[in-house]
Design brief:
It is a single chain. The chain is α+β, with helices and mostly antiparallel strands. The chain folds into two domains: 138 residues, Fructose-1,6-Bisphosphatase, Chain A, domain 1; 114 residues, D-Maltodextrin-Binding Protein, domain 2 (3-Layer(aba) Sandwich), CATH 3.40.190.80. The chain has eight helices and 13 strands. The protein has an eight-stranded mixed sheet with strand order 2-1-3-4-5-6-7-8, with helices on both faces. Strands 10-9-11-13-12 form a five-stranded mixed sheet, with helices on both faces. β6 and β7 form a beta hairpin. α1 packs antiparallel against α2, α4 crosses α8 and α5 packs parallel to α6. The protein is globular and about 50 Å long. The protein starts with a helix and ends with a helix.
């Protein structure tokens, strides 16, 4: 795949942040046994990675706006373009030395996501997508969503919101309703990784709620460019704005959407 100049800028920024996270990740196991614990350390690692991405992107495109998990929104003078950044998606995994986390960047143009990258530095996997240009792994392998048509053959992935009793109750109800229809269910702890892996055909379907724009934006483009479908729980293309995701190929996404609607009716 010949990436555009903008996508190459994004890849460079995500990989530079990923190298910083890799160095910090090597220290986390030692911190697990310390009295203070690693929470402050990981928070600092997150901020450092975000600063790296911000500085790299600002240097390349100084007029673009930013929406960042840690730094919030910064208005640029461009008026059309906005970077959406999650420097460390999978913070709890990072905290516990679980190597499923990623540095994520999406580029929004006039309200539409046009390019994205999701980089897992431990697995050395760089997922990329550009609107109309497909989704790719490490610039060499074209991604396609899995083609399974029956829920009973599918492995699904979801998240459980441990910070909200209401959310947890809803998700347990969804799991008890949907899981018996599937071949298996997983939870990775990284929404962007879930979407990237769905685009790669590793997972067949994915649903989750109470997500932030930086959780959804990079992976949503990858799913679409890999031939998949993604919507909110009502079937509208508003996942980035309202934080709800239902994704898969055309057949299983529709079946999952129906199951979720039946559950809430």
């Amino acid at each position: 795949m010949a990436a555009s100049a903008l996508l190459n800028i994004m890849i460079k920024a995500a990989q530079k942040a990923g190298r910083s996270l890799t160095r910090d990740f090597g220290e986390v196991e030692n911190l697990q046994v310390s009295r203070k614990g690693p929470a402050d350390f990981v928070s600092n690692a997150d901020r450092r990675a975000e600063e790296i991405i911000h500085d790299e992107l600002l240097k390349a495109r100084p007029t673009y706006s930013f929406l960042m998990e840690e730094g919030g929104e910064i208005k640029g003078t461009d008026g059309q373009h906005r970077w959406i950044i999650d420097p460390l998606d999978g913070t709890t995994n990072f905290l516990h030395s679980i190597p499923i986390f990623a540095s994520c960047i999406a580029l929004e143009r006039n309200g539409e996501i046009v390019a994205s990258t999701i980089y897992n530095p431990i697995m050395e996997e760089t997922f990329t997508a550009e609107r109309g240009g497909g989704a790719w792994l490490n610039g060499r392998k074209r991604l396609r969503v899995a083609g399974r048509r029956r829920l009973s053959d599918c492995v699904g992935v979801t998240g459980i919101n441990s910070r909200s009793a209401t959310g947890t109750a809803r998700e347990i109800r969804q799991l008890s309703h949907i899981t018996p229809s599937l071949a298996g269910i997983r939870r990775t702890g990284s929404a962007s990784s879930d979407l990237a892996w769905l685009a790669a055909g590793r997972f067949d379907l994915y649903w989750e709620a109470e997500l932030s724009p930086w959780d959804v934006a990079p992976g949503s483009l990858m799913v679409r460019e890999a031939g998949g479908f993604i919507s909110d729980f009502s079937g509208r293309p508003d996942s980035i704005r309202n934080g709800e995701v239902v994704a898969g190929n055309e057949i299983v996404q529709a079946a999952l959407l129906k199951a979720l609607k039946n559950l809430s009716s």
